[in-house]
TrEMBL record:
It comes from Novosphingobium colocasiae. Belongs to the thiolase-like superfamily. Thiolase family. It holds the Pfam family Thiolase_C. Residues 1-207 form the Thiolase N-terminal domain. SUPFAM superfamilies: Thiolase-like. GO terms for molecular function: acetyl-CoA C-acyltransferase activity. This is Acetyl-CoA acetyltransferase.
Amino acid sequence: MGCVTQGGEQSTALGRNAVLASKLPQTVPAVTIDRQCGSSQQAVQFAAQAVLSGTQDVIIAAGVESMTRMPMYSNVHLYAQAGIGTGPWSQRVLDRFQVAEFSQFHGAQMIAEKHGFTREQLDAFALESHRRGAAAAQSGAFEAEIVPVEIETPEGPALHTIDEGIRFDATIESIGSVRTLEEGGMITAANASQICDGSSAVLIVNEAALKGHNLTPMARIHNVTVTAGDPVIMLEEPIEATRRALARAGMKIDDIDLYEVNEAFAPVPLAWLKDIGADPSKLNVNGGAISLGHPLGASGTKLMATLVHALRNRNKRYGLQTMCEGGGIANVTIIERL
């Protein structure tokens, strides 16, 4: 189970706690993974490697993040406020890269400037994310992948069945009215991913388990790749990771029918499209994190579920998922619909 902010309710071997809170037998072991935004995508890749090796046959790869109950960076700030330690980066690391800190917000701004994007282009991409997310939700495209959760409302019990972040009435004017995060910058809360709560999971099995449990597969994992690069600009690594994954798989980008590139910030998928030479009409066809939210540790398996269902609904074959991650890391997973 992937999880980024491992503190409070998300601490103390969260993956194991999830097993104990579920209907799974207590004999099921678990491990909690932090690869920042790629945590649950890495869970998928570790699961695939485990079933391929034969050391395990059936694995639930999952992720969770409650960004309201454990706010982003709260586990870091707790120690800083208490005056304990120096934070996540040693002075040696900061001196090596000549920075005062590593900032994803600054990295996103650097990408926008490097690739020559304008604020208007970033906002237009954000608007398209809301339009695609709204269209998918209204058409019922997410119904097969969302598990309804019973919640309490002032009016009584209800079922939570839809992503709350979608702005069905979004306009370029409303998105453009949101102030930038820094003076002279282009990144705003409207053209970046939404803070939200979420959890997700996929079941990974090998051929022996498939036959032994009489399961019907939905997709096959075709390639798993992870790379690392510049920790300062950090969010650009999906480009290199995609190139390497395609080369290792013996494929070209034109062989891929749909892509899920996490919309951490609008410049990330835009730069990926530009450098990879990909088709924008195949990208995040049901919207992305700008409209649907980015529950950090849960986003990897969430995007995987969406990609599998989108391929099935469109009768397409190959899908590629990639995620920018803190520290300049990126995962790529290529799947084949069955």
